[in-house]
Amino acid sequence: MSLIYIVFTLLLTPVSTNEILRFTIEEKSPRHTFVADLVTELQLKSSANYSLIEYLPINRNLFTIDNRTGYLTILTGNLDREDLCLNQHCSCQTCQLLFQLTVEIMEKIFHKIIEIQILDRNDHSPIFDNQSMTHIIHIKENVPLGYRIVLPIATDPDEGLFEKQKC
Question: Are strands 96-105 and 49-54 parallel, antiparallel or unpaired?
Fold first, then answer.
C-alpha cells in the first residue's frame, strides 16, 4: 500500500520541464550500451552518488548508473519495445520508461525525472490469421476502375504506419 502512495506522490508532484532529462535509445541495443553522461547533462563539478528508481517498478533493472563516471547505461541486453508495451511496462504511445534520479552531492540531495524513449526497429513481419492464408479472391473481369477488394487481415507489433493495425 505504501508503494502505491509513493508512486502516486511522485506522479502527482508538479515537475518543470528543466527537471526532466530525456534520452532516446534503439530497441535491441546490447548490454552496457551508453545512454547518457549525467555529469555533463547535470553540469556537475564534483563527484556524486546516484540512484535510479523506476516509476512503474517492473523489477527488470533495465538501466544502471556508474557512481564514479555518472554514465547511464543499459544493464540488461535485448530491450524489446514490443515486450515492454505488451506487458504495459512503459507508456506505450511512444514507449517511454520513466525513472526518478536521485543525486547526492556533498550532503545535498536533488531529484530529476529521466524519460527514456525506446525507438522501434522494424523487426517483426506482419502476421496473418490462418483463415487468411487460404483465402481465395475472385475478381470479375468487368469490375470498374477503383473497385475495392477486401484483403486478408494482418497485424504487425512494430511501431509505425501499420502498427497493430490491419494491413
Answer: antiparallel
Q: Are residues 84 and 16 in the same domain?
A: yes
Most confident of 12-16, 36-40, 76-80: 36-40
Give the model confidence (pLDDT) of 76-96 as tens digits. 877 777 777 776 666 666 778
Alpha-carbon gap, residue 99 to 119, rounded angstroms? 17
Does the predicted TM-score (pTM) go above 0.90? no
Same domain? For 109 and 72 the reply is yes
Mark whether 24 and 9 lie in a shared domain. Answer: yes
78 and 155 assigned to the same domain: no
